[in-house]
Design brief:
Elements lengths: L1 E3 L3 H12 L6 E4 L2 H9 L4 E4 L6 H12 L3 E6 L4 H10 E9 L11 H6 L3 E4 L7 H10 L17 H10 L3
Parallel strand pairs: 1-2, 1-4, 2-3, 4-5, 5-6
Helix pairs in contact: 3-4
């Protein structure tokens, strides 16, 4: 499984992939600190995104890291280049799930996906998933506690939002 983006959504997808029995998970991100957290949460491989690389080049780096193209990719950034990387990095007949929401329109390598029969699926990640998510956390199959970095009182909400906005922790 390839997960593009090691932000909060990507990390939850990582936890779910591992809980669902994924044999190997590779995750990408621009920021090394996010990749470190992903590794601590169970990512088997991490690949740092270099903005100078083309989507094809990054897909090749992912293939080299994991040893093959992936069966499934979960794109969590919504960035056009990341969607293209997910398509190029997925084996023929595989599936790319678009979880991240970016611009309303994106230029993607649709002919590449078509001739290789890579299915592209949109996922509105909140629809009808709460009961399953609560059960997975309650049962201990998915441990979300490592995702909690800070705890605030309600009166400190502005400070919490400011910290999140500035990525200060």
């Amino acid at each position: 499984v390839l997960i593009c983006g090691a932000g909060p959504i990507g990390l939850v997808c990582l936890l779910m992939a591992k809980a669902s029995g994924a044999i190997a998970v590779v995750i990408t991100d621009l920021e090394e600190n996010r990749l470190k957290v992903a590794k601590e949460l169970g990512a088997d491989y991490t690949v740092r995104v270099d903005t100078k690389d083309s989507s094809r080049t990054l897909a090749e780096k992912i293939r080299e890291a994991i040893g093959c193209q992936v069966d499934q990719a979960i794109e969590c950034t919504g960035a056009e280049s990341s969607i293209a990387t997910a398509i190029y990095g997925t084996r023929s007949g595989g599936v790319v799930a678009l979880v991240g929401l970016g611009k309303p329109e994106a230029k993607i390598p649709i002919v590449d996906a078509s001739v290789r029969e890579v299915d592209i699926r949109g996922v509105f990640r909140y629809c009808n998933c709460y009961p399953s998510a609560i059960e997975l956390v309650a049962s201990g199959k998915v441990d979300v506690k490592p995702l909690i970095t800070h705890v605030y009182k309600l009166e400190e909400a502005l400070e919490a939002f400011e910290r999140a906005k500035t990525k200060a922790g």
